[in-house]
Amino acid sequence: MPPAMAASNCCRLATNCSSSFLGTAPRRLGSLACKQSYRKIVPPYKITALFWDPKRTSEQREFNPSLGTFILTKTAPEDASVPGRRPPEISISVVSSISEISSQDWDACAGEATGPEKLNPFLSYAFLLSLEESKCAVKETGWLPQHVVAQDEFSNIIGVVPLYLKSHSYGEFVFDHSWADTYYRYGVQYYPKLQSCVPFTPVTGQRILVRNAWYKDQVFSILVQALKDLTMKFKISSLHVTFPSENEWKQMKKFGFLQRIGMQYHWKNRNYTNFDDFLMDMKQSKRKNIRQERKKISAQNIKMKRLRGNEIKAKHWDSFYRFYRNTTDNKWGRAFLTRDFFKNMGERMGDNVLLIVAEDEEELVAGALNLIGGDTLFGRLWGCMPRAYFPNLHFEACYYQAIEAAIELNLSTVEAGAQGEHKIQRGYLPVTTYSCHYILDDGFRIAIEEFLVRETHQVKLAMKMLHDSGPFKDGID
Fold first, then answer.
1. Can you tell me where the transmembrane regions are (predicted)?
2. SS (H, E, C) the chain
């Protein structure tokens, strides 16, 4: 019996066992007999020795970075009437570091894929190179770069995809640990997997980065197909594209990707002239609460500063890294980023970096890291001194200062990142985020798809309830 059929049949027989997806008893997660049967039919994939776990097999898997050439189905408009003119060829390859591509080529693809008003600083060459050079997103940490590159017949780079071969699910913010657990229960390897994303950063943006030209739609399709081909070539469980744009999410469904949604909290600038102007859109009780929270900051003699570009010195990064480690070293935390990352990013990204700091008697006691790109301010990381307690400082540094900065800079949005329903009452409303998942095994794909149907219903219901309990006056969304 084929493996996919075995998984599907086992899942169909299971009606009364618990699920690591939802903790309930859905139809398609199997009994012990089914699992044992599936283990016999489907031997676990051999894991490559790309990663450090000594328990893994030492057998090395061959990885061929070439994905061949594709011929476009159309020619350029100016060539359409030329007799005998053949459509151009596009070659697809894989590089193991973004440094193998020039910054001009990468940023041209990233910038033209979105337009200047939506330019995403996390997709920039500077940000991604900083992650690699500082040993944050590298093989040793379970993030092996496998960036996909599309070139035309003259070797011009016309499209790129940020891509990583991963040995775990940390630093993604679209949680599939329960999927990995289910694979394990059936004796099947879930890792390694391919992940197209910005490491450690739950930020929405284009993932298939193609230059804005007549061939854009065709190259998009070629790159998506190349991602699928690479997944099959590596003989791994799955390919995941997390936090893509909504348009990409819709298009990838046509290529056999499962669709998933999530939720974040964003603040919208309704042409406010100052912070008080924003507060006037809120219900009286919410407006009063925010003003009281901000008064407590001044009552503690805390001084807030917003620093950009060259204003951020090494001493600020030293302090902020201590704050960051104070946050990540607590229970459940993980320090994904190194001190060198902040140094490299700050030097390369200049005024795209906004560091909000809090001073108590001229001593730095807390900070919040933000990036600016296009029409958006992206709130990312927060931390404070160990054992320090300043009531409401987190709200001030992460939310209110970000709003003030966005108004001053005439930015349309503040993205406050994942999690935190407390953001809603401070003006940050829930918005939908997206992810796409290509699951190779038919049986697991069916089970995961059924789970996603139920999860999508729950996410939409939760978003409606949160919107209905929002802080704004009636008629203001």
1. none
2. CCHHHHHHHHHHHCCCCCCCCCCCCCCCCCCHHHHHHHHHHCCCCCCCCCCCCCCCCCCCCCCCCEEEEEECCCCCHHHCCCCCCCCCEEEEEEECCHHHCCHHHHHHHHHHHHCHHHCCHHHCHHHHHHHHHCCCCCHHHCEEECEEEEECCCCCEEEEECCEEECCCCCCCCCCHHHHHHHHHCCCCCCCEEEECCCCCCCCCCCCEECCCCCHHHHHHHHHHHHHHHHHHHCCCEEEEECCCHHHHHHHHHHCCEEEEEEEEEEECCCCCCHHHHHCCECHHHHHHHHHHHHHHHHCCEEEEEEEHHHCCHHHHHHHHHHHHHHHCCCCCCCCCCHHHHHHHHHHHHHHEEEEEEEECCEEEEEEEEEEECCEEEEEEEEECCCCCCCCHHHHHHHHHHHHHHHHCCCCEEEEEECCHHHHHHCCEEEEEEEEEEECCHHHHHHHHHHHHHHHHHHHHHHHHHHHCCCECCCCC
